[in-house]
Design a protein that fits this description.
By secondary structure, this protein is an alpha+beta fold. Helix content is about 20%, strand content about 35%.
């Protein structure tokens, strides 16, 4: 425990000096306009949804250093929304704490989705470890008019209580509603499932989803039944891969 306290204390002091990230009480003192100005919106022609990301909140340092926020997605075709509580947890320990359950002040416990985990900077068996977590939320969870309090429980025994102020949630939802209002309503005869192209990739080969032409023999150009699947192409070892990030671009939040 002394090793974990020493590392987390030094980490908190350093990050506070370098970034000055805001805590939940800091956001509670801000106006709705100031908070809404910090909400990020990502929309490109290549994405099928609009991503809305709330500003990061600096959580407690013990038993782990936590940065957390909420994020949402708005489908461009039908305006369907999803919402998620997102947290990045760092600690110094001999093994992963393995966060599995999220408990809210009201309602049933919910499972935690493990988005990413990493081990680095090991010394004498103890390592700096990071777990990136997600908890699915309903819009009703964000629109109660109260603070959203959640406790993350780990199998290793750690428990972290995180709070998002009601003013933060109200300003965040105002941005979500603004972006959702720009999505056109779908046509009455629109069928989203039929909007996909007629070709799909499967097992390293291109397969037509339509039926073969009459009289076509197996293995001929008009049928895919006799074609052999080609070898699956794997990326070469050592190639850099972007780490999953809360803003959808591989960037990580650090408070």
């Amino acid at each position: 425990m002394q090793r974990r306290i020493g590392f987390l204390g030094a980490l908190g002091i350093l990050l506070g000096i370098l970034t000055g990230c805001m805590t939940a009480p800091d956001y509670a003192r801000l106006s709705a306009g100031d908070i809404a100005a910090q909400v990020k919106v990502r929309e490109t022609p290549f994405d099928r949804q609009i991503l809305v990301v709330g500003p990061p909140i600096a959580g407690p340092l013990l038993p782990a250093a936590v940065t957390y926020f909420v994020r949402s997605g708005i489908a461009k075709d039908d305006g369907a929304e999803w919402h998620q509580f997102y947290a990045e947890v760092e600690y110094d320990d001999y093994g992963y704490q393995d966060y599995k359950t999220a408990n809210f002040t009201e309602g049933e416990p919910r499972p935690i989705k493990s988005i990413y985990r990493e081990r680095r900077s090991c010394f004498e068996g103890s390592c700096i470890r990071e777990e990136v977590l997600g908890v699915n939320l309903a819009r009703a969870d964000l629109a109660t008019g109260k603070d959203l309090a959640v406790r993350l429980d780990a199998r290793g025994g750690d428990r972290v209580v995180l709070v998002i102020p009601a003013s933060y949630l109200a300003a965040y939802l105002a941005v979500v509603d603004r972006e959702a209002s720009r999505v056109p309503a779908p046509a009455a005869d629109a069928v989203p499932n039929d909007s996909w192209p007629a070709r799909r990739r499967q097992a390293g080969r291109s397969v037509r989803t339509s039926a073969p032409s009459p009289g076509a023999r197996p293995g001929s150009a008009g049928s895919s039944a006799g074609s052999r699947p080609g070898p699956r192409r794997q990326p070469p070892r050592g190639r850099w891969r972007p780490r999953p990030g809360g803003d959808g671009r591989g960037r990580r939040w650090r408070c």
